[in-house]
Amino acid sequence: MTHIFHRNPRQQLDFAVRGEGIRLFDQHGKAYIDASGGAAVSCLGHGHPDIIEAIKRQLDQIAYAHSSFFTTQAAEELADFLQQRAPGDLNHVYFVSGGSEAVEASLKLARQYFVEAGQPERSLFIARRQSYHGNTLGALAIGGNAWRREKFLPLLVPAHHVSPCYPYRDQQAGETAEHYAQRLADELDAKIRELGPEKVAAFLAETVVGATAGALAPVGGYLQRIREVCDRHGVLLILDEVMSGMGRTGHLFACEEDGVAPDIIAIAKGLGAGYQPIGAMIASSRIYDTIVAGSGFFQHGHTYMGHATACAASLAVQRVIERDQLLDNVLARGEQLRGELRQALAAHPNVGDVRGRGLFVGVEFVKDKESKEVLDPALQVHVKLKKQGMANGLMMYPMGGTIDGVHGNHALLAPPFISTPEDISEIVARFSDAVRQTIPIA
Ligand code: PMP
What we know:
By secondary structure, the protein is α/β, with parallel strands linked by helices. The chain contains 14 helices and 17 strands.
């Protein structure tokens, strides 16, 4: 009998008792390859000595000091590190404890910016269907996952949604990427005009969609066109890189690959790599300066923001990634992972798409490859696949659920950046075994 109710009480979980590199071990000594980094978190794997050492050093000095009384060396150095590497004029860092808090803070910052900038009528937010931005009320309100929102709707502030960039399903036959990107940008433009451009505060999107669609990357030119639409109407662009950021795609910030800098970016997960809970919002100088010139400070805050131990762990994580040039490995191993998955599952009739960027890889399952019809929800493929993966000693992140009337079924793979070519081949072998065992070839 467990007294924790994080999960369905019918689900029996083993204990994670040890971690080493890309593997976790349960209380029976069984090893699991962490091929999803939990939920795209553990980018350095487990038990990394440099991170443990940095945490111990910080604890010996000061574990925590409230941010209204003191700053700490760890928080200042981490902010400098991020500011120096963030795209555009994203120069001002605000530390929180996780992804939902980072998104929540981004929404409030966008709102306060317009109040200070003398445009208080701007209070509307637009996001995309098939998106997930967190589970707190504000982040849940803006997200586009109908199933997650349903029960809480009376409590959610109104949000508006446009189509995601989902080439596998929505790019029409014969339609070029340029045309498709323009069509989606036009949809956003029309939505802003419909709501009244003077009322819209921000457009929020995951640079690469994670949990609701499985490593869904935008087509080339999409984010640039979205940026143009936002600029045309004075709307802020907020990118949610909670899952896709911090090197997961092979670039420290995923949007670098698209040549676009947002006004605000939300990061978490890989920032602390699971060694400590930490997230951050990075805002542009324009936003920061406007608020400082106005009421002087951002009216927000959490007890644990800028937590010294979390910042020390995160700084150590980011320095190891840079020192060991792990982003080169992310790009190479990502190519290998997609290539080997496509090969191993080419003959499987239910594997519709293998996609992603870097070590952020999604596999979408369908009933029929030609029609792309979705699998029968009653099959509960995502539940069975996760279970089979664990039986095979593989952690992956399968998702299902009804999203805007479409039952998607996909699995997310997000192996640690330290994975070797042999590790990747082993992941492919265990994953494709699990797929064949779970989804019978018709
Ligand atoms: N945004 C995105 C894109 C996410 O993937 C997640 C977590 N899956 C969140 C926000 C929320 O982050 P957290 O669970 O750390 O609150």
